[in-house]
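tool=predict chain=A
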Amino acid sequence: MDRFEANVQDNQERFLAELQEFCRKPSIIAQDIGIDETAEWVSDRLRNVGFESRVISVDGGAPVVYGEMGSGDKTLMIYNHYDVQPPEPLDLWDSGPFDAEIRDGRVWARGVSDNKGPWMARVQAIEAYQQEIGDLPFRIKWIVEGEEEIGSPNLGRFVEENRDLLDGADACLWEGGRRDGAGRPVISLGMKGIAYLGLSVSGASSDLHSMNAPIVGNPAWRLIWALASLKDENENITVDGLMDHVVKPTADELEYIRGIPFDEEQNKQDFGISSFLKGATGPDIVKQLLFDPTCTICGFLTGYTGPGLKTVLPNQASAKVDFRLVPDLNPELVLRLVREHLDRRGFTDVNVELLAQLWPYRSQVDHPWVQASISVARDIFGAEPVVYPSSAGGGPMYQLCGTFGIPGISGGGVGNPNSNLHAPNENIFVEDYMRSILYTGHLIQAIGNL
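tool=predict ok
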């Protein structure tokens, strides 16, 4: 691999210029800016490397770029996205969000870390690999979507409509990846899901004077009582049957979480709290964070809360509640369990609606391709990788990896602890970018040798 590494080093200036070119293309899905043009650019770049690439239209959504190349008895799926977050507030950027300036050893641009840098590094790694080593040792199927930043609402439908095209992969190299504050590479192997519910109760035909409270029901109290039945004062979810579907972490997963750094005192200080829920300390904090489902009241709306007094009996009350899901929970199951739970307690008047959903997914930590990615990260970064069996947040990993029953591996990316994802002054270090190219090339070689 010496020739490959020399190629990457020799082409650093060109690779960075190409990254800047990509980052200077606004592709803001929330504002419908530059989506179609960027999809065509991505497809052209894949084609230039040797992929059979095309832009696939998705009815009512952003196009998906699909590229395929290579042959053999092994297949790697790759997932990335070309859309970015809006750059606002613009006045907090030190340079234009789409100027892609290089200064102080970093590239500054919206999307450079999430997710244009990781995608471009992979493309350039494949280009250099072919130039110096030869043909890819396996087939690659590459999906680059344009709606990740709004929750990938059409990715599942794209997968269903193109199942025959996508089937046959052994693993998926997921988007993202970063190093932590100590310079250790971070590898994530799963994501939580989400069931985002809207609950509402209606009462009288209009708001009434509160003097009617002795004879007219109050929707606010009805909803408060209903919500109180979902979780107890010890922070346990009490929805009938929900916890029966929770898969406990394996011994291997528990071993990996012992290696995940978590500064208890610093996090308590940052959060402004005196302790963690259930009195958790040490590895138990990380275990709860990654493996426990949640039930969170995100907001509650009813009545009058403005200045002064208003003696009112409200006729409407609503709340939004998110359940963060772990295997084997799923959004439809949670919706059904909550509905049945409330009905058993007489809350048939509480309306429950599923507003957004993502399924959870967790990969096998002992899968050979997972272990190969850990080994390559250790060699390229010169530090022991920090392996997350799951992330605490959500994403569309299930829609690809779960559908085809393959591990999803997020690692070797370009991010750093201060990359400012979704915030002004998003950035990556040039050194991390070049290292990510090396990681991808060495991972190709390692997988080919399995």
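The chain is about 35% helix and 20% strand. Residues 112-132 form the longest helix (21 residues).
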